[in-house]
Amino acid sequence: QYKGMSKERMMEIRKRNCSPMTMKVTYYKKPVFIHQGYMQWLWDVDGTRYLDLFAGVATVSVGHCHPKVTAAAKQQLDKLWHTTNIYVYPALHEYCEKLASYFPDPLKVIYLTNSGSEANDLAMLMARLYTGNFDIITFRGSYHGGSPQTMGLTSNAAYKYPVANGLGCTNTMCPDVFRGPWGGSHCRDSPVQTIRDCGCAPGHCMANDRYIEQLKETLVTSVPNRIAAFFGEPIQGVGGAVQYPKNFLQDAYKLIRERGGICIADEVQTGFGRTGNHFWGFEGHDVLPDMVTMAKGIGNGFPMGAVVTTPEIAASFSKGVHFNTFGGNPVACAVASSVLDTIREDGTQRNSLEVGTHLMTELAKLRDKYEIIGDVRGKGLQIGVEMVKDKASREPLPADAMNEIFEDVKDMGVLIGKGGLYGQTFRIKPPMCITRDDADFFLAVFDKSLHNYMEKR
Ligand code: PMP
User: Quick one: which of 214, 145, 218 has its CA closest to 175?
Assistant: First the structure.
């Protein structure tokens, strides 16, 4: 039973002493006061249990306070909390060797950081040093971080400020086969297809050609006709689980490399088995990036990030000193190492595939039942449900309607997320230990909340 600080006092302190951001984003009209977590469950200070389908934004990978991971952290805490990597210590080396074994050659050199923004900052720097070029391209609607440099990669106004940031970053049209101008039913790789007719000829995706033309036009603006890098998530996370035509990344990687650039996969949300069929999201696109960045799920909620690249690219980075006090911290390495073991031992990736496919299949039935669900998409447990005013217009469902459904789902005991360029997409990215029964519980709750909303509308 919770005996800590009162809710009123927390809100007072939040208003007075916490960053203005925490005030702006209370997320719910009636805020949730979380006190404890175990696997897919969270408890608030009143003892109410919530099914967590957002996992602190796709971060809790194997489960809140997973006993195996907690035990590994405790063991390391008793041995050594900290030393910087100017000394040689086992936790870092054990982890780097283990993480490298999850990548094909030549992706074998690892840098450890403390967050996704830091990992992407480092990736930007290395790409520029290696190629000698400056311009970097990302997709519209993407989120790659909030540091001054990565704010330039991030291409969603909600996370940007009118200050100089991320010079040399350009965005290209996001090849979104639901909301974008082209694409539809057979363009993307997902267990459920869109309701839009794509009009593509069998075996040839015309939408892909058109989105690639857009990328070509963006490339014309790069200086001096050369580029440092292209950053892309395998499935856009904050953007609302947006998926691209099946061959888009293959064709994009080819173009970028022709212009002297390297290709970077941001796996901060899609890595560690979340997409189900594959351990890394890029594998689902049949591409091999030159660099992969990761965070969130890597530590099951413990602050950590990483960049993996090739020895050749890493060599270009050896002229100066790269120092990071906490990157590769022994406790973080022990936790992350245990996360990799737990994913294997618990069959987490397979569970992502099975439960995620079940969820999407059933959500597609709700899409067919309700006029306000425009699209259900994703892979494994990286799922987006895009809400619309009506299917014909595909106009985003307004914020007040989104909030009403969102709050109702929470009041019935399930936490989900919101995202998308217009805040129009519900995001489902739970701890990957959720069961089919949990999925069915959410489906019943979601159905009821949509029904409640439609009755009132
Ligand atoms: N990349 C992606 C795809 C993300 O979703 C995020 C965080 N939402 C980041 C990078 C930045 O990670 P962090 O918040 O750890 O800096």
Answer: 214
Distance CA 372, CA 450 (A): 9
The answer to whether the CB of 227 falls within 8 A of the CB of 261 is yes
Report domain extents, the chain. Answer: 7-53+347-456, 68-346
Torsional class of 263: left (φ above 0), alpha (ψ -120 to 50), beta (otherwise)? beta
The response to whether residue 269 sits with its C-beta less than 6 Å from ligand 1 reads yes
Task: Report the distance separating Cα 49 and Cα 42, nearest Å.
Answer: 6
The domain made up of 7-53+347-456 is a member of CATH 3.40.50.300 = no
Q: Is the CB of 453 under 6 A from ligand 1?
A: no
* Spatial contact of 304 and 113, defined as CB atoms under 8 Å apart: yes
Burial class from Cβ neighbours inside 10 Å (0-12, 13-18, 19+) for residue 360 reads buried
Alpha carbon separation from 380 to 54, 193, 321 (Å, rounded):
14, 14, 40
**Of 54, 239, 244, 243, the residue nearest 157 (C-alpha):** 239
Tokens (6 digits) for 42: 């969270």
Considering the domain 68-346, what is its CATH architecture? 3-Layer(aba) Sandwich (3.40)
Dihedral over Cα of 54, 58, 60, 63: its sign:
positive
Q: Is the CB of 100 under 6 A from ligand 1?
A: no
pLDDT in tens, 361-380: 999 999 999 999 999 999 99
d(CA 285, CA 33): 39
pTM over 0.90: yes
- Measured in angstroms, how far is the CA atom of residue 434 from the centroid of ligand 1? 23
**pLDDT tens digits, residue range 217-254?**
999 988 788 999 999 999 999 999 999 999 999 999 99
- What b-and-e string marks burial along 142-170, b requiring 16 or more CB atoms within 10 Å of the CB? bbbbbbebbbbbbbbeeeeeeeebbebbb
Q: Is 159 in the pocket of ligand 1 (CB under 6 A)?
A: no
d(CA 77, CA 206): 55
- Ligand 1 atom 2 nearest Cα: 144
Q: Is the CB of 11 under 6 A from ligand 1?
A: no
